[in-house]
Every structure is written in structure tokens, then in C-alpha cells.
Amino acid sequence: MTSEERERGSKWLDRGGLRPTRQRLALAALLVGDGRNRHVTAESLFDASRNAGEQVSLATVYNTLRAFCDAGLIREIVVDGTKSYFDTCTDDHPHFFWEDDQRLTDAPSDELEISRLPQAPKGAEVSSVDVVIRLRKV
């Protein structure tokens, strides 16, 4: 990783109020170091960290992703009950889930129109709406 990637990762962690441990810095640099948004799974980030020569366990990756979510730096997108993706773009936007290759990508939000939501039950409020559009090749 370059010093620029590490610097971007460090600033990103600072925005979330997180202490820049060695593991957090390494994972942050992989997630945002190039300045682009991405969707990752814990497993894909673990593989990327190993390929970059970082010594980070899969459990540490899971815990770090949870800390990044709690700090508001990333969003968790649950595709089904067993598969979560983590998105570095935290703005509200829909996603395409490509079933054939298990990939999550951004969908154009200007083409999505939600005209009405059901009323939240008494004592609750809608905190967010996740839209995942499943696709398969024909």
C-alpha cells in the first residue's frame, strides 16, 4: 500500500472517531485508499488484506467491519439471511445483486421511485429503506 492510500485511510478513520490501529489502518487503506467506493464481503476484504501482505485474521476483519458500521463509515447491505456486503458509500441508494456471480453494485437512484411506505407500527419509526434488486443473466 502506498503512503497516500494509508493517509486516506487514516483520515477516514478519524472522520469516524476511530483509533487508527495497525489492522484498522490496513483495512481502511484497502477500502478507501484509492478514493473509490466499493462493496466488499468480510471474506473478500480478508483475501485482499492477505494479498497485500497484511497479517489480519478473518475474525478481526469481521470485528473491524462492525466497528466501521457502528462509526457510520460504511453501510451493511444484507442480501439474504447469510450474506452481508459492506458499502463504503453511505448515501441512500439502491443496489443490484447479481445472483450468478454473487456481486453487489450500485443501481441508478434517479430511476427509483418509492411513492409510499407502510405506516410504521406505534412506537417505531422508519430508520432506512434498503432496496436490493436481484438480477440473473438470461
TrEMBL record:
The lineage of its organism: Bacteria, Pseudomonadati, Pseudomonadota, Alphaproteobacteria, Rhodobacterales. It comes from the Bacteria. The keyword Electron transport does not apply. The gene is fur. GO terms for biological process: negative regulation of DNA-templated transcription; regulation of secondary metabolite biosynthetic process. It holds the Pfam family FUR. Keywords: Cytoplasm, DNA-binding, Iron, Metal-binding, Repressor, Transcription, Transcription regulation, Zinc. Gene3D superfamilies: Winged helix-like DNA-binding domain superfamily/Winged helix DNA-binding domain. GO terms for cellular component: cytoplasm. This is Ferric uptake regulation protein. Its main location: cytoplasm. Belongs to the Fur family. One of its GO terms (molecular function) is transcription cis-regulatory region binding. Homodimer. InterPro entries: FUR (IPR002481), WH-like_DNA-bd_sf (IPR036388), WH_DNA-bd_sf (IPR036390). It is found in: Cytoplasm.
